[in-house]
Amino acid sequence: MPSVIPPNPTLDDRFFWDAVAEGRLVFQRCASCGVVRHPPAPLCGECHSTEWDTQESSGHGHVYTWIVSHHPTKPDAEPRVVVLVEIDEGIRFVSNLLGVEEADVQNGMEVALSIEDVDGVTLPQFRPAGATGAGGS
Amino acid sequence: MALSRDTAIVGIGQTEFSKHSGRSELQLAGEAVAAAITDAGLTPADIDGAVTFAMDVNDELAVMRCAGIPSLRFTARTRGGGGGACATVQLASAAVASGAADAVVVYRAFNERSGRRFGQPISDNNKSRVVPPGWNWYLPFGLDTPAKVYSLWYQRYMHRYGVTNMDFALYPVVARKHAATNPNAFYYQQPLTLEQHQESRWIVEPILRKLDCCQESDGGVALVVTSMDRARDLPHDPVRVAAASQGHLRDGDEMFGYYRGDLSGYEEGAFLGEQLYEATGLAPDDIDVAMIYENFTPIVFIQLEAFGFCGPGEATDFIAGGNIEVGGKIPVNPNGGLLGEAYIHGMNNILEGVRQVRGTAVNQVDGAEHVLVSAGRSGLVLSP
């Protein structure tokens, strides 16, 4: 199991982590002009509105770029594949890719959301699209 | 338009660069500032401004006291980490050009190896394990060191142009070749081979090996900026700040710039280069030396392309062709840079730029006139 540091929600992103705890991935959407933004921000950069709601993510996208992350000071901790996922609705999101060998990770591979408990922390993770259910690593 | 009034760097000073200075960061700052004032041919009473990084722990008034500066009319700090290195000179030049100060000392000093190490995981540097603002999107997912944070960007460059870590090895070999003849460099007399680079351990597979990472160093550097008019009466030939600019674009976080555009290039670097070339009327071919901030090897490749020294995707062949060595078309980091000389948050590369224009560098580039100094998100052109 990798060693995970939990997020520390702030006034600007608590909604995101509350949704993750409910098993959902949501992004912030301007209530005035409808632009979806990530990371969240208290004002819309397009129209300056402070009003916003959320949009449920499709949870489907592809790997834009990736690395293998080894814990620098805990050599026994399981390495993690860190991915920048380009989600279909046009949002890029940093996450992890599970259930795949490092040698098989490629830019462009299709992935799907999987909310997972990792080291006691609930996180939005991704698995190769079409993979059945949780399992593997 | 990048700032281009008539200001000059007239003094430089530094401590030795080491892995264990054995003294306080304030002492390093004080020693560097005192040396820079002396080198400028000024006295502490001539200094009325002080500039450093927001991250520097040495308060301006504590440094002022150590250096014996009787009064200050101006202080300012630049945002960011190493990306702000050249912004310090922009702030100092703006203060002088506006009349807010007559002579500004710029300093950066730290024990970045024997004290707080930037390269260590942020959780280990932060004993309370409280995630800093903005890191919620990264730390829980395992992006816990600068090497990993930046590698997620570099991988896209490698992917697009078919570049491998063996290609990246070309730069550290040049940096260490330059450092090997620089007595001031930590790696003095220690050149590197491609094979040795490939034997160093992976830091972020398949992108960075240990020898692709800048050093962690202890040390202090300082410089003095004043007007060209004043500079003409001082001992050294003035090194004119021909241009100074920062380069930031919306949604382009300095570390986590993942959210906009094509990550195989460096839009902020290209923007910065445009500012510097427009302000000076110079083109890439007019630049004689490039001082390029390199926290990690790939950023040299990406900046060579962003500043137009070679075309997109051409950096590997450009470096392999000897173009960035002293004697080549555009020598890069003749001091050995942050990999070979030391990592004083990029400011030691500004000092080397000054020495190249003065003609006093140990690895002097013949006829060097125009030096481009880049910290990625801030940059300078230094000229006679």
Task: Set out the fold topology.
The complex is a heterodimer of chains A (about 140) and B (about 375).
Chain A: H1 14-21, E1 26-30, E2 36-37, E3 52-56, E4 60-69, E5 80-87, E6 92-97, E7 110-118, E8 121-128
Antiparallel strand pairs in A: 1-2, 1-3, 4-5, 4-7, 5-6, 7-8
Chain B: E1 7-14, H1 25-39, E2 49-53, H2 60-67, E3 74-78, H3 87-98, E4 103-111, H4 146-161, H5 165-168, H6 170-179, H7 194-199, E5 202-204, E6 208-209, E7 218-227, H8 228-231, E8 239-246, H9 267-280, E9 289-292, H10 298-306, H11 315-320, H12 337-340, H13 347-358, E10 371-374, E11 378-383
Parallel strand pairs in B: 2-3, 2-4, 9-10
Antiparallel strand pairs in B: 1-7, 1-8, 4-7, 5-6, 8-11, 10-11
Helix pairs in contact in B: 1-2
3D structure, described in words:
The complex is a heterodimer of chains A (137) and B (384). With 137 residues, chain A is mainly beta. Chain A has two domains: 9-56, no CATH class; 58-129, Nucleic acid-binding proteins (OB fold (Dihydrolipoamide Acetyltransferase, E2P), Beta Barrel). Helix content of chain A is 6%, strand content 39%. Chain A has one helix at residues 14-21; strands at 26-30, 36-37, 52-56, 60-69, 80-87, 92-97, 110-118, 121-128. In chain A, strand 7 (110-118) and strand 8 (121-128) form a beta hairpin. The longest helix of chain A is centred in the first third of the chain and has 8 residues, at 14-21. The relative contact order of chain A is 0.19. Chain B has 13 helices and eleven strands. A nine-stranded mixed beta sheet of chain B has the order 3-2-4-7-1-8-11-10-9, with helices on both faces. In chain B, strands 5-6 form a two-stranded antiparallel ribbon. In chain B, strand 10 (371-374) and strand 11 (378-383) form a beta hairpin. Chain B starts with 6 loop residues before the first strand and ends with a strand. The mean pLDDT of chain B is 95. Chains A and B meet through strand 4, strand 5 and strand 6 of A and helix 4 of B.
